[in-house]
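DM from R.C. (forwarded with permission)

"hey, sorry to bug you on a friday — could you get me a structure for this? deadline for the figure draft is monday and I only need the backbone to look sensible"
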Amino acid sequence: MDFLPAPLRGVLASLLLALNTVVCCTPLFIVAIFKLCLPFPAAQRFTDWLMSHIHEAWISNNKGWMNLLGGTRWHLSGLEGLDYQQSYLVTSNHQSWVDIMVLQYVLNRRIRPLKFFLKQELIWVPVIGLAWWALGFPFMKRYSKAYLEKHPEKKGKDLETTRRTCDKFRHNPVGIFNFAEGTRFTPGKHAQQKSPLRYLLKPKAGGIAFVLDAMGDQLESIINVTIHYPNGRSGYWDLLCGKVNEVVVHFEEVQIPAQFIGKSYDQDEAYRLEFQQWINRLWEEKDQLLGQLHQQYPKKG
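My reply, with the result:
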C-alpha cells in the first residue's frame, strides 16, 4: 500500500497495532487466569506454551502490517545455526525504538520470543504491564549505590530476587534481551560521553553481566546483533508510515567464556574488570563492522 500518503499509512498502522494488541491480549489474560487457578506442573507448562504462541502471533501480525504498509528491503546475515529449543542472551546497538520491532520481525520463531528485564514499577503500566507480567517478563528491583550505602544489608538482594525469577526458565527455553549501551545513540550523547567509538556509545557491561550472573548456566550463547539503517535513523512514526526503506541486520553468535559463569559482577573486582574489557572488545569490533556496513550500504538519494 505504498501508493497511499505516508500519514494515512501511519494512521492505518497505528490502528492495526492497537487492534492486534487488543485481540491478542484478550486470550492472553484469559490463559493467565487459568494459570493462576491451576498451579499444577502440567497445567503450568500448557498455559506457558499457549501464552508463548500468543506472543509469537502478536509479533507475526505486526510483521503482516509492516509488510502491507511498507516496502522495507531486508539485508540479513549470520542467522544460520540458531536453535528454537535453546536459550539465548540477545544484545544489540541501539539507535531508535524501531530497533525492537526489527529484532522481533527477524527473530520471531527462530528463537523464543524476546523478554526484557523490566523495572518493577513498569508492572503498573496499563494493559501492557499486565501483558508483560502474564508473559513472564522478569521484573527486577535495582538498588542505587546511594541506597546500598545506607542499607548495606540489601547488597546482592536484587540479584537474588532475579535468580529466583529466572528459575522458571530453567526448563523452558527463553530469549533474554539487553541493550548494552543502555540508551539510544544520538550525536549529543556520543559527544557528551566522549566515546572512542565512531558509531556507538560506550557499552555498559553491568546489564549483560547481571543476566549472566542470574542465569548464565542456562544460556546457549550470546547473540550479538548489529543494526544499520542506510538512510539514517528512523523514528517509530516513520516505521508506522512505511518510511523505513532499508534495514541491514547482522547476527553473530558469541560463546560465553567459561570463566564468566557463576561469578558476581558486583562483588568480584577482578572479574568485573575482565568482563568490561571483553565487552569493550565486542563493541570495538561492532564499530568496525558498522564502518564496513556504511560503505557497503551507503545512503541513497
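R.C.: lifesaver. Strands lie at 73-77, 88-92, 114-116, 118-119, 139-140, 175-179, 221-228, 246-254.
me: no worries. The chain has a mean pLDDT of 88.
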